[in-house]
Known about the structure:
By secondary structure, this protein is mainly α. The chain is built from 15 helices and no strands.
Amino acid sequence: MRALLQLMRPPHWLKNVFVLAPVVFAQRLTEIDADVKALLALVAFCLASSAVYGFNDIRDREEDGRHPVKRHRPIPSGAISVGGAAAATIVLAAIALGIGYRIGLDFLGVLAGYMVLNLLYSSGLKHVVILDVMSISLGFVLRVLAGALAIDVEVSAWLLLCTVFLALFLSFSKRRHELILLDRHASDQRPVLSQYSPAFLDQMINVVTASTVVAFALYSIAPETIEKFETRFLIYTTPFVLYGIFRYLYLIYQRPGRLNPTEHVVRDLPSMVNLVLWAGSVVFVIYYL
């Protein structure tokens, strides 16, 4: 069971909270039916992403065996057999799609599209410079779209824009972590890393960092946002956004470790406290001011 949980990578489920964004920003959080559907959508994406991780680990088991950190994963370490991992992956995917069907066909289509995108990524897109990062970012956009379809609301263009920039920020940061960690062996582990350099990635990170903050700030003061939420106070949640990004940059630049950035952030108490405070402040502003 421990090996199976490691194969599913629960720390990475944090990425799937994007599915819950529409229910919050559509002001449906107080509706039990919407909450149930949103939570089911979250579960479906957690299981689907775990199935994708299982497929990737099976496909990349030889490369992972040469990686200083990934060699400890269940398949390359021998904690779980390839057959066992394949069976678990199929079951996880089947349950995810079953939940998706229960939610609705539109949601199921986006969920299936997310899984197909990840299969395409594993099969070739991950070897194409820049397009590899954009493919990962598209997965976050699909999460938001799926969350909106689950509760039958129209997703805001501002919300999608913020998601794109934040996803690019996370993806470029992950590439930088891999490049620095693997050093001269980077291209052996992931060939596309030979097309990147720390300086180039730093430039991309600078661009999307500023874009993320500006996009959220503009969203919070946009006339349609103020009219929808009937408050001008959403802008006051921006400091939490700034701190979260600055803390993330601090971790990858000043405290780089063997863990990938997502796992590092999940274990970083200030980041988690800030995330909870930001979410709480957004809910308070939207629903109580």
